[in-house]
Automatic annotation (TrEMBL):
One of its GO terms (biological process) is pantothenate biosynthetic process. Pathway: Cofactor biosynthesis; (R)-pantothenate biosynthesis; (R)-pantoate from 3-methyl-2-oxobutanoate: step 1/2. The keyword Nucleus does not apply. One of its GO terms (cellular component) is mitochondrion. SUPFAM superfamilies: Phosphoenolpyruvate/pyruvate domain. Belongs to the PanB family. It comes from Pelagomonas calceolata. It catalyses: (6R)-5,10-methylene-5,6,7,8-tetrahydrofolate + 3-methyl-2-oxobutanoate + H2O = 2-dehydropantoate + (6S)-5,6,7,8-tetrahydrofolate. This is 3-methyl-2-oxobutanoate hydroxymethyltransferase. It is an enzyme of class 2 (transferase). GO terms for molecular function: 3-methyl-2-oxobutanoate hydroxymethyltransferase activity; magnesium ion binding. Keywords: Transferase.
Length: 339
């Protein structure tokens, strides 16, 4: 199926995308110092990244949540490094179409970095060189993860940390459960985040923790703490693109949208309305009308074409009838009247 090349997406605010300055890891640190809130949204393909960039979002996260919202996996663990690179490249092209201002961070997926810092470094280098990412994100704050972060940063890779609910570890944590709900566990999250900061992480995501813990993390860290279900006291917020836009508006998905996610648009409902309208227009013959049939043939060429068809009309009709009879003979459901 052929269609026109993708057209550039216009900026959605008064500030044009092309005029925006490129967001960097150092720029995020400055935003924290100035008290400016950081906005981060996931982007896993060309159109989502183009819209994220045009909207003036600071950070585009090519997150492994794409396994659930784009690939249909039950959780993020099946996502492979090659799948992440494929989607990250598309996201980079989408950002590039609207000025390329947001910082693009790619999740290192489950199994791509846990074995050793050396394995993690190879995966991170691929994220930057092949995926076009500006940096990577890793989950967890254990000494092993902190050592990995230090190795990556020492090798020139910008790293974002992630504490609280770590979706790649759902088998260990017992599912998608809030974290840091006891004083002991909350203090451990603070210590883990500080360890990631000491290792060189330029920011830390805090997921599904009480608002008091999110605020405490932001106060304790010199680097930005970006919350997702972590309350208003964080230095910024991140949501999944399809969740905040209501893109997957059907009962199954609705039952899985996190409680912390506010739906800012009803894209899914409008998508279903548009698809149903298209279906009905096709079935009734209302689409395409002459207005949407723009390609014309000159009268002379149309006459020559009609004459060409007339010359062998009988033979083509016989051939078509034979093919039709063969199809019916091969269709056991038609023969048995099972339709």
């Amino acid at each position: 199926m052929r269609r026109a090349a993708a057209a550039p997406v216009r900026a959605l605010s008064g500030e044009t995308a092309a005029a925006r300055r490129k967001v960097t890891a150092m720029g995020l640190l400055r935003m924290k110092r100035l008290g400016e809130k950081i906005c981060m949204v996931t982007a896993h393909d060309y159109p989502s990244a183009a819209h994220v960039g045009a909207a003036g979002v600071d950070v585009a996260l090519c997150g492994d949540s794409l396994g659930m919202v784009a690939l249909g996996y039950a959780d993020t663990r099946p996502v492979t490094l090659d799948e992440m690179l494929h989607h990250c490249r598309a996201a980079r092209r989408g950002l590039g179409a609207v000025g390329d201002a947001p910082l693009l961070v790619m999740d290192l997926p489950f199994g791509a970095y846990e074995e050793s810092p050396a394995v993690a470094l190879r995966a991170a280098h691929r994220a930057v060189k092949e995926g076009g990412a500006d940096g990577v994100k890793v989950e967890g704050g254990s000494p092993r993860v902190a050592a990995t972060v230090e190795t990556l940063v020492d090798a020139g890779v910008a790293v974002m940390g992630h504490v609280g609910l770590t979706p790649q570890a759902v088998a260990v944590t017992g599912g998608f459960r809030a974290q840091g709900r006891t004083a002991r566990r909350a203090r451990r999250l603070v210590d883990e985040a500080l360890a990631l900061e000491r290792a060189g992480a330029f920011a830390v995501v805090a997921e599904c923790v009480p608002a008091t813990v999110g605020a405490a993390l932001s106060r304790a860290l010199a680097v930005p703490c970006v919350g997702i279900g972590a309350g208003p006291g964080c230095d910024g917020q991140v949501l999944v693109y399809s969740d905040l836009l209501g893109s997957l508006a059907h009962p199954h998905h609705a039952s899985h949208v996190p409680r912390f996610c506010r739906v800012f648009a009803e894209v899914g409902k409008e998508s279903r309305r548009g698809l149903a309208a298209f279906r009905d227009a096709v079935r009734t013959g209302a689409f395409p009308s002459d207005e949407y049939s723009p390609y014309a043939m000159s009268d002379a060429e149309a006459a020559r074409f009609a004459a060409s068809l007339a010359r062998d009309a009988d033979r083509r009709r016989e051939d078509s009838d034979e093919v039709r009879r063969r199809h019916i003979a091969d269709d056991e459901y038609e023969i048995a009247k099972l339709y």
